[in-house]
Amino acid sequence: MRNDKIIPGIILVAIGAAILLANFGYLHFYWYNIFRLWPIFLVIAGVNLVLANNKTVWAGALKIAVIVIGIGFLFFGNTGDNYGFWSRHNWHSWHRNDNNNDNNDNDNNNDDNDNDGDRTPGKNLFSQPFANNVRVARLNINGGATSYYLSDTTNQLFTANTNDNRDKYIFSSSVSDSVTVVDFKMKNHNGFNFNSDDDNRVNMALNPNPVWMVNIDAGAAKVDFDFSKFKIKSLDVRGGAAAFDIKLGQPLTTTNVEVNTGVSAVDIKIPENAACSIESNSGLSGNDFEGFTKTHDNFYETANFAAAKNKLYIHINGGLSGFNVSRY
Fold first, then answer.
1. Closest Cα to residue 277, out of 213, 322, 320, 325?
2. Is residue 21 domain-shared with residue 119, that is, in the same domain?
3. The 322-327 sheet, strands edge to edge
4. Residue 151 has what DSSP assignment?
5. Where is pLDDT greater, at 82 or 39?
6. 233, 311, 244: which is closest to 276 by C-alpha?
7. Is residue 6 very low, low, confident or very high in pLDDT (cuts 50, 70, 90)?
8. Which has more confidence, 310 or 114?
């Protein structure tokens, strides 16, 4: 084997072995470390570049030592759930919604349905009044490099409080097929934003009366949503390199949750007595489904699923992510 292939091979073997051990419960992997400690890979690559032409024993030993220490810290270092790089040095990566027919996404948006809310320097409030005839509502969230939080109820249909010095959010509402649609998205913005987590935080609240359908396309972001007080019919979560912490309440007759991620940490909490089925096509990802029984390949169920009237279906697709479903 050529020397220049040994180091990448060791890294791949170490990561693959750790994921396998985590899948079988022998290793607790701190998935948030992927986002917080990713510069470890830069250090490993840098050391190998510097010593690339040094064939001495000490150089080889040093390269292996750096890998062992770096990967070991990545696997076992409990750094907490701080999102790391994106919460401090945010990389804005907004993904355009293909279903949005509004082609004017610049700062002079002329959509008559746009509602910019109450705007003050640095802080903004976006809101949509609640009408008693609203039975079903859809919330579309699109935008990365932000920390999204939801736990409170409101007598409005929807509110969002932002620290928005850069006027980077667009808010609009409409009615389609008797469904009130609320769109909250980030303007097209590329590059880096060196602001703190508090400067990129969005606190949302929903009205608990309607049945909600929620779509989240977060890119690189942190999403901490407590839906336990709301009636959720469907939840579609998409993210590239993101952290999702989702708490669900009792399912409706049918509640569907779709999760599609790249390199992300996904933690879903469901009620202890909720009947739930999980279909997981998660590639090299680590799965931890507490209280579930594997029925056949890629399928898991709670013991009460078959006889239940109200059922929760979770469909998971991911590349190299950590998926955790637990009960509270």
1. 325
2. no
3. 118-120, 123-128, 158-163, 201-206, 147-153, 222-227, 243-248, 265-270, 322-327, 286-289
4. E
5. 39
6. 311
7. low
8. 310
Residue 70, CB-side half-sphere exposure with 13 Å CA sphere:
22
Question: Taking the complete model, does pTM exceed 0.85, yes or no?
Answer: no
Confidence check: pLDDT of 23 > 70? no
Q: What is the DSSP letter of 143?
A: -
Q: Please report, in angstroms and rounded to a whole number, the separation of the first and last CA atoms in the chain.
A: 51
Other CB atoms within 10 Å distance of the CB of residue 105: 16
Section 60-76 average pLDDT: 76
**Same domain flag for 56 and 101:** no
Question: Among 198, 100, 120, 115, which residue's Cα sits nearest to residue 156?
Answer: 115
Residue type, 37: L
The answer to whether residue 256 scores a pLDDT higher than 70 is yes
- Mean pLDDT comparison of 76-80, 166-170, 252-256, 261-265, highest-scoring range: 252-256
Region 131-141: mean pLDDT is 96
Would you say residue 83 lies in a domain? no
Residues 263 and 314 in one domain: yes
Is 108 in the same domain as 247?
yes
> DSSP letter string over 174-213?
EEETTEEEEEEEE-S-EEEE---GGGGEEEEEE-SSSEEE
Read off the DSSP letter of residue 154.
Answer: -
Token output for 68: 């062992």
Quote the number of domains for the chain.
2
In degrees and rounded to multiples of 5, residue 44 shows phi and psi of -60, -45
In this predicted structure, the answer to whether residue 127 has a pLDDT above a threshold of 50 is yes
Domain that holds residue 29: 3-76
Q: Would residue 84 count as lying in a domain?
A: no
**Helix/strand/coil for 125:** strand
